[in-house]
Specification:
Largest sheet of chain A: 4 strands, parallel
CATH class of chain A: Alpha Beta
CATH architecture of chain A: 3-Layer(aba) Sandwich
Structural class of chain A: alpha/beta
GO molecular function, one term (chain B): acyltransferase activity
GO biological process, one term (chain B): alginic acid biosynthetic process
Radius of gyration of chain B: 23 Å
Number of domains of chain B: 2
Order of helices and strands of chain B: HHHHHHHHHHHHHHHHHH
Radius of gyration of chain A: 21 Å
Number of helices of chain A: 11
Shape of chain A: globular
Strand order of the largest sheet of chain A: 2-1-3-4
Helix content of chain A: 40-55%
Number of strands of chain A: 6
CATH topology of chain A: Rossmann fold
Pfam family, one (chain B): MBOAT
Order of helices and strands of chain A: HHEHHEHEHHHHEEHEH
Oligomer: heterodimer
Distance between the termini of chain A: 75 Å
Largest interface: A-B, 20 and 17 residues
Main location (chain B): membrane
Strand content of chain A: 5-15%
GO cellular component, one term (chain B): plasma membrane
Number of strands of chain B: 0
Chain lengths: 312, 479
């Protein structure tokens, strides 16, 4: 038995050592082109953009769904579009934004519907990569327990990626999914003027239950924003009409739960339904025309609410 | 708790440690520990169904004793049928009630009658088909005086619920497993190492082959109207490798895990894709179920003793029942029927036992003739799996129609080359190890240890890299 245990442990040391080396190696050239690389840049914007500010928080539906210049011109506030990738999870988006909120900020939260179902809000491989490739890897271990539980299984795969040839060669990627995709406000604009041949269509929203914990996290985020002398508005992402139709029962369930909270909610989910011609490559990613339409709707809602709240 | 989950990665070493260290080789304690662990393992899915498992265990244990102690043949028959009816009754209610209610309503409505039946909103208890058949084999063997009943309740309960086989087999026999449970087990280094190797290969087949093939197969079957005939063909081929990787991978993990506890389970797969005809295929695919049907249905029906007509009838019966065992849907029934058709020529011409040895035994390559037969048998298997995987019969026929359309002559879309390479690697390793119980059993045994360990470590790293990061349940759990 001793021999068995000794040899088993000894054998397990081989893959463990390979993984450790993988973790310690610098980010691969492919990872260095990834759009996740803008996470520290967006953090820097949150730190340094001057008042009056409006911070727009979500995943890629915000990155690919906003024309910040319109926001700036209409509301006379400096926009910071923090949207990068929904796979980082809403918990990350809330916690990361929270540390940079300043007095007088207006925070607009418009998460993808997927963030409220199942465990999507806890993040995926992208969350791990944000820390290990772009931030301090040790900070990863300071995440919420649920985020760690969800994402640590990606560690071996991440470590292994350092040894995969495709991470070093033939690095051509779509510009709109690279670190060069963003403008000075944080909007993805590399795809503006382009069309995508076969956009992905989501059917039912993944995740078989409405996650009330994440709703509670949003409510707590609202309290924190208020305590810092800022204001939070909740609104909805632009979403392809077919996917909206299929996911409607879930979206309505989510909306009903949302309206029971004390959050200030702008508009309705239906208002932000997008026809196929306004969609780029996924149901949340909008073309320039789609992003313009979505921004105009948002600005209209914001103006009305800000007047009510005497924030203009 | 899935074999490919972190939970199991924690559960297994704990039970292993307690089993060999805390029980100090005491058989009674070992069996109690196995029973408690098995119930915990099962309760992780849904603790409520644990009571169903316990009830089934008590029922078969009690009726087994009553049959053996019965004073008359009449009483023996009474206890036997009581057990059979209750066991099949549970299976019927949980698995088949809705199917029969819907089918009857559809048939009556088709004849102009307005019929509605209540359908049950029930979840299928995981593993019910497996542990029911497990218990039935025990009861039937006692009834037929093949075995004596087990009087130790803990030992019998371990036989039914031993966690490696509890949810998806292999379907064990009392004659094989019970003596092992009753015998003192001592740690055997070679057996344990062998077990770990088999678990490793099982995990590779499940997490690398099956889960990656599943992504493509699911995409094709979910939106089959959007794809060409060639993509349909690739979709069903990927599904064939998915189900093989999934179920044979599960079986390897189950057998390997059992070995860690000093228990040898029945073999469930023996390289079915290298079969030269359908009869050989069915001797190599889901062996514990095929042999169950052979022993408890085919032979009692008369087997092959009553001439060709009897053989044909009995073969159709067992294949259709086997299809129905897999699921309450006409697609499974048709899948069984199709396999019966495939095997018919060898039944009629009495050639079903021509290929008893593994192909190309003692040689590196098969002959051209062998290869031709392997490819033909595999193609037939793939075709039948269309019906196994399709949502319903209309979907299956639409799928088949698309395969026989002109779009089959266009290149298939969406295939990840690396998955194809992984399938090739799996087939090569399985081919190299086809004369052994499982592919890795003797592969690399003559290599220097560093090379052998590097090979195993490479498999671990391939699992890390190619895992799909979703804990995908094993397909056979639904049966």
């Amino acid at each position: 038995m001793k021999q068995f245990l000794k040899k088993t442990v000894l054998f397990l040391c081989i893959p463990m050592a390979v993984m450790l080396i993988g973790l310690l190696l610098p980010p691969t050239p492919r990872a260095e082109q990834s759009l996740l690389l803008v996470a520290p840049i967006k953090d820097s914007m949150l730190q340094h953009v001057k008042q009056p500010r409006i911070i727009l928080v979500s995943g890629s539906s915000m990155g690919f769904g906003l024309v910040s210049q319109i926001v700036k011109d209409s509301l006379h506030r400096n926009p910071i579009n923090t949207g990068i990738h929904g796979g980082m999870g809403l918990y990350y988006l809330l916690d990361n934004t929270a540390q940079y909120i300043q007095k007088g900020d207006i925070v607009v939260l418009a998460p993808e519907y997927h963030q409220f179902f199942g465990d999507f809000c806890e993040g995926n491989e992208e969350l791990l990569r944000v820390y290990f490739d772009n931030k301090n890897g040790l900070d990863f271990f300071k995440l919420r327990a649920v985020q760690l539980k969800k994402t640590y299984p990606y560690i071996p795969r991440y470590a292994m990626s350092k040894f995969i040839p495709s991470q070093y060669f033939n690095l051509k990627t779509q510009e709109f999914y690279s670190k060069r995709a963003f403008n000075e406000y944080g909007d993805v604009n590399q795809h503006w003027g382009q069309t995508w041949p076969n956009p992905v269509v989501f059917e039912k929203i993944d995740g078989d239950y409405l996650n009330t914990d994440v709703l509670q996290a949003v409510v707590e985020f609202n309290e924190l924003v208020k305590s810092k002398g800022a204001t939070l508005y909740f609104t909805f992402p632009g979403y392809l009409e077919h996917s909206f139709g299929v996911g409607k029962p879930q979206i309505k369930e989510f909306e009903a739960a949302l309206r029971k909270t004390n959050l200030t909610i702008l508009g309705t989910p239906e208002q932000y339904i997008m026809t196929p011609d306004l969609i780029f490559d996924t149901p949340y990613h909008l073309t320039k025309e789609g992003a313009t339409k979505r921004t105009q709707l948002l600005v209209k809602d914001l103006k009305t609410q800000m007047q009510k709240d005497h924030l203009e | 708790m899935l074999f490919n989950s972190v939970d199991f990665l924690i559960f297994l070493p704990i039970v292993f440690g307690l089993y060999w260290f805390a029980t100090k080789g005491n058989l009674k304690l070992q069996n109690i520990l196995l029973l408690v662990s098995s119930y915990f393992f099962y309760a992780c899915w849904d603790w409520r169904f644990l009571f169903l498992l316990m009830f089934s265990t008590v029922l078969d244990y009690y009726t087994g004793l009553q049959m053996y102690d019965a004073q008359s043949q009449r009483m023996k028959r009474f206890w036997f049928w009581l057990s059979v009816c209750i066991n099949l009754g549970f299976l019927g209610v949980f698995k088949y009630y809705n199917f029969f209610a819907d089918s009857l309503a559809t048939a009556l409505n088709g004849m102009g009658f307005e019929a509605h039946f209540w359908t049950l909103q029930v979840i299928l208890p995981v593993g019910i088909s497996f542990y029911t058949f497990h218990g039935l084999s025990y009861v039937i063997d006692i009834y037929k005086d093949r075995i004596k009943p087990e009087r130790n309740f803990v030992d019998y309960s371990v036989f039914v619920s031993f966690f490696p086989l509890l949810v998806a087999g292999p379907i064990e026999r009392a004659t094989h497993l019970l003596p092992q449970i009753q015998t003192k087990r001592q740690f055997n280094y070679r057996q344990a190492v062998d077990g770990l190797r088999q678990i490793l290969w099982g995990l590779f087949k499940k997490m690398v082959i099956a889960d990656n093939c599943a992504e493509y197969a699911n995409m094709v079957f979910a939106n089959s109207a959007d794809h060409s005939g060639s993509t349909h063909i690739m979709g069903v081929i990927f599904f064939t490798f998915q189900i093989y990787g999934d179920f044979s991978g599960y079986s390897d993990i189950a057998l390997g895990t059992a070995r860690l506890f000093g228990v040898e389970l029945l073999r469930n797969f023996a390289y079915p894709f290298f079969s030269r005809d359908t009869a050989e295929y069915w001797r190599r695919w889901h062996i514990s179920l095929s042999s169950w049907f052979r022993d408890y249905l085919y032979i009692p029906l008369g087997g092959s003793k009553g001439g060709t007509w009897m053989k044909v009838r009995n073969t159709f019966i067992i294949f259709i029942v086997s299809g129905f065992w897999h699921g309450a849907a006409w697609t499974y029934v048709f899948w069984g029927f199709l396999n019966a058709l495939y095997i018919m020529p060898s039944i009629i011409f009495n050639t079903n036992r021509h290929n008893m040895e593994i192909v190309a035994k003692g040689r590196v390559f098969p002959t051209f003739n062998e290869l031709f037969h392997i490819v033909t048998t595999f193609s037939l298997t793939v075709f039948a799996f269309i019906f196994f995987r399709a949502v319903d019969m209309a979907h299956a026929f639409q799928f088949v129609t698309e395969i026989f359309s002109m779009s089959t002559f266009t290149p298939p879309k969406g295939i990840r080359n690396e998955v194809v390479w992984l399938i090739v690697i799996m087939l090569l390793v399985e081919w190299a190890g086809r004369e052994n119980k499982y592919a890795l059993e003797k592969l690399g045994m003559r290599w220097p240890r560093p090379l052998r360990w590097a090979f195993y470590a490479l498999i671990v790293l391939l699992i890390f890299w190619f895992q799909t990061m979703k804990e995908v349940a094993f397909i056979y759990f639904q049966f």
